[in-house]
Amino acid sequence: MNASAQTPFRRALRSFLEQRTARVGLALLLVLVTAALGADVFASYSPIDVLIDKEPGAIRLAGPCINALGCDGPQHIFGLDNNVRDVFARVLHGARLSLQVGFLTVGFAIVLGSLIGAVSGFVGGWVDNLFMRVMDVLLAFPSLLLAIAIVTVIGPGLINTQLAIGIVAIPIYARVMRASVLGLRDREFVAASRALGASEASILFRKILPNALTPSIVQGTLGIGGAILDVAALSFLGLGAQPPTAEWGSMIGGDRNLLFSSPHVVVFPGIAITMTVLAFNLVGDGLRDALDPRLQR
Amino acid sequence: MTTYIVRRLLVSLPVIFGILVAVFVITRLLPGDPCRALLGEKATEAACAAFNSRYGFDQPMPIQFLKYLQQVLTGDLGDSIRFGVPVTQLIVDRLPTTIELTAISLTIATFFGIKLGVRAATKRNSRTDVSTMIFANLGVSIPVFVLGLLLAYLFAVVLKGTPIALPPANRYTAGVIPTEIAVAWGLAGLQGPLRGLLDFISNMAIPNAILTLNPGNLLDAVKHLILPSVALATIPMAVIARITRSSLLDVLGSDYIRTARAKGLSEREVVSKHALRNALLPVATVVGLSLGGLLSGAVLTETIFGFAGIGRTISDAITARDYVVVQGVTVIVSVGYVVVNLIVDISYAYLDPRVRINS
């Protein structure tokens, strides 16, 4: 095929799909999205329904019961948890929540971080200095620790946890965007817009920003996995999602003392988190390799 | 070199100041007034007025901030609401456990991470390479609390009764009591900073067992440390393996390596004497950066394995709404983190002359 006939988008897509790990990541991501969207269809139980009086024979912490494998009771693919809820339903609905959490948290951090970074890099001078020193301070905290401190102050809950993890992630996106803007602001097309009389704000937001987005998107994809991990960690500690919400971290945290007798309550949500984070990491790595011109062979 | 160190020190000071400002602001943003948070909901107006003037909450903000600075700089981080003891005392009691855990984890992560990375890079695209990278990808994706719990289940339940069974919780087996180093050395009467230092080291189980010459305790302490440190080391180990691999691949493609090969050196010598030294520079940065992750991970690891370390202290303090402890520990750990990063940067400049010339 004639390479010059390809648009940059198609070239990047091809380069992305050529990587085996990226394809694995994409496949995992598809499984997740399907699970999240179809949670109500695939799981025959509600994630917060306590089955103790509703279903004869439902006992606390019962292990997996799969009809296809010869179990003739009501089917609970991942077993029941300490509150006699269907773990499979909780894990599927947890996928929905985790994807939301990942995108929202990173979205928040990218928007604010990019704004700070863009203004910082474009304006320069004392504004740049001030913004970047504030970012340095945020980066100086071990991330989970700062998030914990923030949540202790604003109170536990899923929204507050996402806010805290988002705030902690701002400096990364600010730095990435600042670096891209610095690389673009002295280019000819910017000088041309200025000569045509465009206002400074319009130059920054209409001309520079669209061209500076790629690294932020790559960083954001890699950041989604991290955000899901961190929110799960805070939920594990009891600061994030509150019961009876089906959230992987809090499922593990809530039942962790039962691990030794009923490992299924920890193992399945654990696999779910690992798979999700792995999917975003692989896709993020693939995107970076496909979009970074320095890595193009 | 001296100029670089001085400049780097000067840059750290505003960051530390910023940490103090940030923690102060977070403290003052506390919902509700501090009086009722500390004295209870039913505190009377008079009691609150007395409380506020005692702790200076009736003063203007800038004055409060200066007072806070003065307190922190003189080593006063307030008293724990729950235990009534100074936060500094809690830190001295519990930080050693965390330092021991993170130091061992970082050592494991660096040693095995580099080993894995080198193996993957020198056998590029082989089965070793692919399996190492699968491990590395899984390693950065599994949450430390899931890995910790699974390891505990595997080694304490599944392998129970076998020689490789390991304890899933606590720093020592119940009944094993460490002797204070000062007491063991016949220095029980010692006072002052030297005694403080001895007590601090005394609270680290492994150095304590070695310095008090107690092989039984040493074995027990090591056994209890294996699972937590492996759980905590996995993420940084995977990151280090990846960065070592890509950095070494970069270097192996350069001209001077071709020259080294051309003059007839064995592949082993080329890698270990020529390539690895240059390839390890980015690795050094990543090792420094993983400390933040290790400190964050320590909160979870210590909670799972029941270690009375600083991370566990924080997570307990959260549950008990002991704000003073959360803030004090955050300040200390963050400042410590800045200082360690400073040391990493300086050693980096020492290793790589380009750093101190270009910056």
Write structural notes for this entry.
The complex is a heterodimer of chains A (297) and B (359). With 297 residues, chain A is an all-alpha fold. Helices cover 69% and strands 0% of the residues of chain A. In chain A, helix 6 crosses helix 7. The longest helix of chain A has 37 residues, at 87-123. The two termini of chain A are 16 Å apart. Chain B is mostly helical and 359 residues long. In chain B, helix 14 runs antiparallel to helix 15. The chains are: A mainly alpha (297), B mainly alpha (359). Chains A and B meet through helix 5, helix 6, helix 9, helix 10 and helix 11 of A and helix 1, helix 6, helix 7, helix 13 and helix 14 of B.
Blueprint of the fold:
The complex is a heterodimer of chains A (297) and B (359).
Chain A: H1 8-17, H2 20-37, H3 39-42, H4 87-123, H5 125-140, H6 143-154, H7 158-184, H8 188-195, H9 200-236, H10 248-255, H11 264-291
Helix pairs in contact in A: 1-11, 2-4, 2-11, 4-5, 4-7, 4-9, 4-11, 5-7, 6-7, 7-9, 8-9, 9-10, 9-11, 10-11
Chain B: H1 2-28, H2 34-39, H3 45-55, H4 61-73, H5 87-122, H6 127-141, H7 144-158, H8 181-184, H9 192-202, H10 205-211, H11 215-252, H12 255-262, H13 267-305, H14 310-319, H15 323-351, H16 353-358
Radius of gyration of chain A: 23 Å
Distance between the termini of chain B: 12 Å
**Morphology call of chain A:** elongated
Strand portion of chain A, in percent? Answer: under 5%
Structure characteristics:
heterodimer, A: 297 residues, mainly alpha, 11 helices, 0% strand, B: 359 residues, 77% helix, globular
Summarize this, please?
The complex is a heterodimer of chains A (297) and B (359). Chain A is mainly α.
